[in-house]
Amino acid sequence: MADDYRGQIGRLIRDSRQHRGWTQSQLADALGTSQSAIHRIEHGQQNLSLEMIARIGESLDKQIVSLAPQGPVHLRVSGGQQLSGSIEVRSSKNASVALLCASLLNKGKTTLRGIARIEEVNRIIEVLESIGIGTRWLGEGRDLEITPPERLDLDSMDVEAARRTRSVIMFLGPLLHREVRFKLPYAGGCNLGTRTVDPHMSALRPFGLELKATGGYYHAEVDRSTSPVRPIVLIERGDTVTENALMAAARNDGVTVIRNASSNYMVQDLCFFLRRLGVRIDGIGSTTLTVHGIPDIDVDVDYAPSEDPIEAMSLLAAAIVTGSEVTVRRAPIEFLEIELALLEEMGLDYDRSGEYVAANGETRLVDLTVRPSTLRAPHDKIHPMPFPGLNIDNLPFFALIAATANGQTMIHDWVYENRAIYLTELTKLGGNVTLLDPHRVLVEGPTRWSGTEIICPPALRPAVVVLLAMMAAKGTSVLRNVYVINRGYEDLAARLSVLGARIEAFRDI
């Protein structure tokens, strides 16, 4: 029995090492032991202490064994701390997810540099691996190599992982070129109200895709004789809808015009990636995209998605709400200009560096230094608009910022049916937030924040807003079950702690 357990643990360690792209010698160096010892461990020929298993797991960034069922992760925040220093914006979560889906278009090897190591990305990787696609982390685990098989095994799809992310809907565009019949589980993700697939169907039907929803799955059939005969006009200028249409058009043999397209940051990153695959796309950054598709894509491609403007806004909000001087480096300025113009109107004191280019060779970056400021409410309501307007995902941070300003601010979240409701959680921390209807809240500041315990809202951005408010609140706060934050942010609590925040992750015993 002991030999069997040692063998099972050894195989888990071997698989985790190979998944990270390490040799036995590299793992041995990290642990301060010999390659022969690692060989014995992986072959179940050596006893292991719990301490050694924990050290191996930490080195490989992988939990090897669990001694008991794991409960949710919570955060304990000791608030009222001023932040200082500088922090880099990491790569875009939404672009990383789109590029993972787009790798399905390529028969060659795809290498994505510096992609976000977040739960949403992990779920998509799990789905890709379950259908036969090889993935391995390179170097220090920041770059991902993706190798497709000759044929996908869609019947073996990890349904549980697929249901935990809405992004699986973006498999439709690539898969319609690979399979005549397939099925996808209903998409999950944040609880933001009803999100139908109708806009996706309208965009993909010209490529011959028809869907029937039964038994918890979308059942797809593709008529390969069908191809767009006129421009595709999207009935919703959505990011994922545009991405699905782009991926369908990329391998369509002909020219596809997509109108009312999103020109948001993740869509532009996808366009730049598709160009690396050999697909010509005209009109990037506009609402009309012309895609010159190629029916067969088989290239080895290397691409680095740009930095995340929503994370940049999160870090700016953290500095503002705590009254701190912080430099946010590598901020994608093209996708923050409206936000910064509004913050200037509210009285924010900040500097920006000269522009430089991201690793994708396209996106413009700056460094932003925010200083403590006395803010005032804006003259008009704050509402989002499609790019180049104020980003829909940045709107919740303005509810938090408005709570620090003098005066009343109306926040109008017209996109989602119930996201504005979650912003009323700020009242538990001392905020004056009145829900006017499911789309509008009235925020009055300034606020004297006070600590409390809150169950994490089930929507990503409002959850981060609550966490940032806790950082400004006097006393100790607890934010329970933060999985939704880990879906969209990589090590956010730890990175904020480097700036001086006091945040501790824990589980219930």
User: What is the CATH H-level superfamily of the largest domain?
Assistant: Enolpyruvate transferase domain
**Number of helical regions:** 18
Computed Rg = 24 Å
Taking all residues together, what is the mean pLDDT? 90
Compact description:
By secondary structure, this protein is of the alpha+beta class.
Describe the secondary structure blueprint for this structure.
Layout: H1 2-20, H2 24-31, H3 35-42, H4 50-60, E1 73-78, E2 84-88, H5 93-102, E3 110-112, H6 119-130, E4 134-138, E5 143-147, H7 159-163, H8 172-175, E6 181-185, H9 198-204, E7 209-214, E8 217-222, E9 232-233, H10 239-250, E10 255-259, H11 265-276, E11 280-282, E12 288-292, E13 301-303, H12 309-321, E14 325-332, H13 337-346, E15 349-352, E16 356-357, E17 364-371, H14 395-404, E18 407-412, H15 419-422, E19 432-437, E20 440-445, E21 453-455, H16 460-472, E22 476-480, H17 483-488, H18 492-498, E23 502-507
Parallel strand pairs: 2-14, 3-13, 9-10, 21-22
Antiparallel strand pairs: 1-22, 1-23, 3-5, 4-5, 6-8, 7-8, 10-12, 11-12, 14-17, 15-17, 16-17, 18-20, 19-20
Please describe what this structure looks like:
34% of the residues lie in helices and 22% in strands. By secondary structure, the chain is an alpha+beta fold. The strands form six sheets. Strands 2, 14, 15, 16 and 17 form a five-stranded mixed β-sheet that branches. The two termini are 29 Å apart. The chain is globular. Keywords: Cell cycle, Cell division, Cell shape, Cell wall biogenesis/degradation, Cytoplasm, Peptidoglycan synthesis, Transferase.
